[in-house]
Amino acid sequence: MIEPGIYKEVMGSFPSGVTVVTTLDPEGDIVGITASAFSALSIDPALVLFCPNYASDTYPILRDSKQFAIHLLCADQQAEAYAFAKKGKDKAKGIEWHLSERGNPLLNKATAIIECELWREYDGGDHAIIVGAVKNLILPKEPVTPMVYHRGKLGALPEIA
């Protein structure tokens, strides 16, 4: 049996980007989760995936909404990363966002945004594997520094030589 604490420590040793996945709940309010388990999957068709925990209160809303926006966070979006990592309602209190033409809630300042429709869902142990069909891509007007997650900490990706 793999000890969960050591597993988390080893997996946390792999630097990753940080995303926030958002959608609207049935009342029209923004909901979302912070996810470092995110990946490109396919170019043709254009697919990406992220893996929410089944225990997340946001997971069933994301699954049922059938569309969502994945935000690749920039280094100065730590407030957004921590806010959407919490449980409960009102995660977006004080966070600026607007609706896209596709009806997805979009956070301001992200490194990039990927708007998706639910393509497939698979079981992944204690997490779901959500595959999204890419429907729209948004890049910022100005280059921004991406956020990275490593060993339990969020920070700026240092300039690559």
TrEMBL record:
One of its GO terms (molecular function) is riboflavin reductase (NADPH) activity. Residues 11-156 form the Flavin reductase like domain. Gene3D superfamilies: Electron Transport, Fmn-binding Protein, Chain A. It comes from the Bacteria. The keyword Oxidoreductase applies. InterPro entries: Flavin_Rdtase-like_dom (IPR002563), NADH-dep_flavin_reductase (IPR050268), Split_barrel_FMN-bd (IPR012349). Its EC number is 1.14.13.-. The keyword Nucleotide-binding does not apply. Keywords: Monooxygenase, Oxidoreductase. Belongs to the non-flavoprotein flavin reductase family. This is Nitrilotriacetate monooxygenase component B. It comes from Metapseudomonas furukawaii (Pseudomonas furukawaii).
